[in-house]
Amino acid sequence: MDKNLKSFIVSEGADFSYWKLWQMVFPFMEWLPEAKRTWKADLLAGLTGAVVVLPQGVAFAMIAGLPPQYGIYTAIIPTIIAALFGSSRHLISGPTTAISLVIFTSVGAHASIGSVEFIQQVLTLTFLVGGFQLILGVARLGELINFVSHSVVIGFTSGAAVLIAVSQIKHLLGLDFKNAPHFAGNIVLIIKNLTDFNQRTVIVAIATLLIIVSLKRLRPTWPNMLIGMIGGGLLNFLTGWFNHGVKVIGALPSPIPLLSIHDFNFINIKVLAPPALAIAMLGLMEAVSIARSIALQSGQHIDANREFIGQGLSNMIGSFFSSYASSGSFTRSGVNYRAGAKTPASAIFASIWLFVILMFVAKYAAFLPIASMAAVIMVVAYNLVDFHHIRKIVKLSTVDFFIMSATFLSTLFLELEFAVYVGVLLSIGIYLKQTAHPIVLPRIPDFNSHHFIAVQSIQEQCPQFGIVRIEGDLYFAAMTSVEEQLTFLHALMPTQNRLLIILSSVNHIDVSGVESLKNLIREWRNAGRDIYFYGIKWRLMNILYKSGVIHLLGDRKVFKDKESALQTIVKRLDFSICAKCSKRFFWECDDNKTKISRGV
Questions:
Q1: How do strand 465-471 and strand 530-534 relate by DSSP bridges?
Q2: Cβ neighbours of residue 280 under 8 Å, at least 6 residues apart?
Q3: Per-domain residue ranges for the chain?
Q4: Is the whole model's pTM more than 0.85, yes or no?
Q5: What is the CATH architecture of 439-597?
């Protein structure tokens, strides 16, 4: 049984029941009774979400290299599953731009874009993505997301926005060439084919953009992308330009998701596993980040592990219903919250509404120009770039700017799945570098409190008794730095033969830390000097006892409070040196001077 469940059962006053156990296994049982009262608000919010996702679903499927209906399918089944098993009340899952682009580049390298083989590999990839996410959730590794800095997400999404925009230029201009696998190659192809642009296609694209931008400013609550797409379609239909080179999407097939079968052969799994892991991490970053940002406004608590499980199940189950890898959608989730959604039932209603709408409008998609869809995608790409936070990062943090820039450039010039890894590894690497250098600074007691304060200069110390505070954990990567700093500090004050190490800021110690402490104690003892510890936390003390550090040090050299430490150690100093010393850092110094004058 999970240790958290055990602690819940035995906690004082806990009214445990099988109903609560069922709620933990099936999270939707927690909010389902409430939905009976809030269904009207959720129903209206769902309608708004369905209208928003209709153009997005088709556009994102195009980015992924899939037929338009797959974007719609991804906005139906995965959305329902993620709502039932996730923890957020407002997060809406479905197709996203970044994941669509990663799928296009990773699967497109092994199969012809849009082919039956390509679609089958995408769906198999989606199942693997869900499997990785589910394993991480069951293993309760939700906190891993905390190690991915916001700079990585901003750098990756900004790079993805540029890639998406470049990939759609040919559709905006009506150019006819096969996209290159890399960013630079696409730029070259656009320049080479620029003179072959279709004037009618450009007019349709500009008209669509003007409608979207105008509505966004004049009527921000209206579904500007949907209206812009319809406007482009009407222009194309009324002018008859679909017969003069303006390419159209074509009629959408049935909105009922088709059952799909995966190809789980060893070669497929071997090829798809690396990008699947990258997409899984990217999807979890998106979902949890969006859920937490909305939770700051709604006041709801987000369980990252439950979100992992919800996203994993949505992708695994969705892959059998012609849905490709999905995650949380910032646009749809924000719209859902602002539309007044109260429970995850709004996501379920959105899927139902989308299905109903498609039953009536699927055939009219035959006149929707691809140029209009490209215009919608360009707007989505622009919205991906977080200019506000980019300016803040540039202004406030050199390290975050480096991480963001490295991730951005990796997204443009490396395989997308590797770009995710580059950003994550940089974040973790810089974090480890920072934690691998704990601060070790000399301290002196503050006469007005029970604390120690930092010295203003290295000479403001007792010539016999040094006090240092280690701020950081003592683990394998940090011990070299700690040892070097202690050696350096002692070299500056070589007359100090007693050292009190304050460990109140140390929360963790590993085997390397234990061995380093033992070596330090032996080194000082062999040189006729003594080491003392102060402020050890209970968990750390338990490890130091079991490892033999306390036995080697001696119980009488470990102190729980400042007063007992100073009284004990200062009494063991050389009184003759105290008598000549002009510095008085301890109350006990005067007592030592008195003892010398009496011949004690």
A1: unpaired
A2: 128, 129, 130, 132, 133, 136
A3: 38-432, 439-597
A4: no
A5: 2-Layer Sandwich (3.30)
